[in-house]
Design a protein that fits this description.
By secondary structure, the chain is α/β, with parallel strands linked by helices. It folds into two domains: about 1-225 and about 415-470, Ribonuclease Z/Hydroxyacylglutathione hydrolase-like (Metallo-beta-lactamase, Chain A, 4-Layer Sandwich); about 235-410, Rossmann fold (3-Layer(aba) Sandwich). The chain has helices at about 40-45, 65-70, 70-75, 85-120, 135-145, 235-245, 260-275, 290-300, 305-315, 330-335, 355-365, 385-390, 420-430, 445-455, and strands spanning about 1-5, 15-20, 25-30, 55-60, 80-85, 145, 155, 160-165, 175-180, 185-190, 215-220, 250-255, 280-285, 325, 345, 370-375, 395, 400, 405-410, 435-440, 460, 470. Strands 6-5-4-3-2-1-22 form a seven-stranded mixed β-sheet. A seven-stranded mixed β-sheet has the order 7-8-9-10-11-20-21, with no helix packed on it. A six-stranded parallel β-sheet has the order 14-13-15-12-16-19, sandwiched between helices. β3 (about 25-30), α1 (about 40-45) and β4 form a beta-alpha-beta unit. α4 (about 85-120) runs antiparallel to α8 (about 290-300) and α6 packs across α7. The radius of gyration is 23 Å and the shape is globular. The structure holds zinc ion (ZN). The site of zinc ion has 4 residues, from loops. The site of zinc ion (ZN) has 4 residues, from loops.
């Protein structure tokens, strides 16, 4: 079989890998949006480097947009095969894709204005800019889905069987195992998808796939170590809440992604409440997408880890407790942003780029009693990254603003394994010694190389370039 790496090759976004079997079956693993370079967004995502009509199966490892964001476009361009994924992935993708489409449409509106202006002056040719897909194409995904349970084997034809294995990371995230029969030989190829950090809140630890001959692995945190803070998430959050909201009577603002991080933080606060440790202050969750994702988490208790299952059994709910207030609309969000009383605000998105979180940071950054807790990875240049660099002033909404609030970070809610955890995962995947080839994707080139240098016991370790093919 042949694998071609069409995305997340020496970069983090745009996961898309094509597997072509001898007998003719073509499998695409993930079909994410590449948003590494905003100016090249259209060029990198509008067209596929293969005919979409020829793909038989699409395996979707999880719902994040850098893995699922271009699926509706694949459908628009003629893909009519099956989409293999877990039930939570299908549900979460549905509204993450709607949200992604809304963001595209906002951008397209601006571009269209410019296009029509230029068209009047006869400066442009061709059709007006349009989004990559429409709502209708998202809807088609439901009809095309073949939902698998974790561990269930799906026999597609004589040459291909597929199995999904829990990957941690976010609700419903799966690694995919392809068992391929070629020339009388059986070969196993694994794709990790995105893996989770060990001992994560809510989701189980990743389960390594066994007996593989080749593995395609994410390497997001290759070369990096999660912080030395070995305390539990409950202790870290409690310290922040007491320090900011009780001792300084300020507001604690926590930027968090809508799917995964927000739920982990709310669950931890609920645990503190049940243990009688949470001070009597209000907790606000302010992100429409997070509210919808939270409901999906509550429907799929079976996909959670034992701690969460037990908690749910005992207390009847993962997230509902009296201190928690769900912000419903934008007006309420604006009011909350200037509310004078101590409180915790959990809002999206995690890197503090756009969304309601930017307003909360803007309105609360200038007071020394407040805190901003960065709970995840912030890409270079994002507001989250600039805050972490300890600058005295940061530009928000085109105005320089003094940073008086206390800014800190924690890795306890990280959604990816670090360098050592990845090495341990590879070791566990190669227990039988059958793993001969390892392909690293979904990471920055330099960090990926540091990881590749430290891998032991596997004959061939590759960091493929975009469009590079390998025979397995
Ligand atoms: Zn992910």
């Amino acid at each position: 079989m042949k694998i071609t790496f069409w995305g997340a090759a020496q970069q983090v976004t745009g996961s898309m890998h094509l597997v072509e079997l001898e007998g003719g079956t073509k499998v695409l693993v993930d079909c994410g949006l590449d948003y590494e370079n905003r100016r090249e967004f259209e060029a990198n995502n509008a067209h596929f480097p293969f005919p979409a009509t020829e793909i038989d199966i699409l395996i979707l490892t999880h719902a994040h947009i850098d893995h699922s964001g271009n699926v509706p476009n694949l459908i628009k361009q003629g893909f009519t095969g099956q989409i293999v994924c877990s039930a939570p992935t299908l549900e979460l993708s549905d509204f993450l894709l709607q949200d992604s489409l809304n963001i595209q449409l906002m951008d397209i509106r601006k571009k269209r204005k410019q296009y029509y202006k230029n068209k009047k002056k006869k400066k442009v040719k061709g059709a007006a800019p349009q989004a990559l897909y429409t709502k209708k194409h998202i809807g088609f995904m439901l009809d095309m889905a073949n939902v698998l349970m974790p561990g269930e084997t799906f026999e597609y034809n004589d040459e291909l069987k597929i199995r999904l294995t829990p990957a941690g990371h976010i609700l419903g995230a799966m690694s995919a195992e392809l068992e391929v029969k070629e020339n009388g030989e059986t070969k196993k190829l694994g794709f990790t998808g995105d893996l989770g950090n060990l001992n994560s809140k809510l989701v189980p630890d990743p389960t390594p796939m066994r007996g593989l001959n080749a593995l395609v692995s994410e390497s997001t945190y290759g070369g990096r170590k999660h912080g030395t803070d070995s305390r539990k998430a409950e202790e870290v959050l409690l310290e922040q809440v007491v320090d900011t909201c009780v001792e300084r009577e300020g507001k604690l603002v926590i930027p968090a992604f809508s799917v995964g991080r927000t739920q982990a933080i709310l669950f931890t606060l609920h645990q503190l409440y049940i243990d009688g440790k949470l001070p009597n202050i209000k907790i606000f969750t302010d992100s429409p997408l997070a509210i919808r994702s939270t409901k999906v988490y509550q429907y799929h208790i079976d996909y959670l880890n034992d701690e969460a299952k037990e908690f749910h059994k005992k207390h009847g709910s993962l997230f509902n407790f009296p201190n928690l207030h769900v912000v419903q609309d934008e007006r309420e969000s604006e009011y909350l942003s200037v509310l004078p009383e101590p409180c915790v605000i959990v809002s999206a998105a995690g890197m503090v780029e756009g969304g309601r979180i930017q307003m909360h940071v803007r309105n609360n950054i200038g007071h020394p009693n407040n805190s901003i807790l960065i709970a995840g990875f912030c890409a270079e240049g994002t507001l989250g990254d600039r805050l972490l660099k300890g600058q005295d002033f940061v530009e928000i909404d085109r105005r320089e603003r003094p940073v008086k609030a206390k800014v800190s970070r924690t890795d306890v809610f990280s959604a990816h394994p670090d360098h050592q955890q990845l090495l341990d995962y590879f070791k566990a995947s190669n227990e039988s010694g059958s793993l001969k080839k390892l392909f690293l994707v979904h990471g920055e080139a330099g960090q990926m190389q540091r990881l590749a240098d430290d891998v032991g016991g596997i004959e061939e370790v590759q960091t493929p370039l975009k469009g590079q093919s390998f025979i397995v």
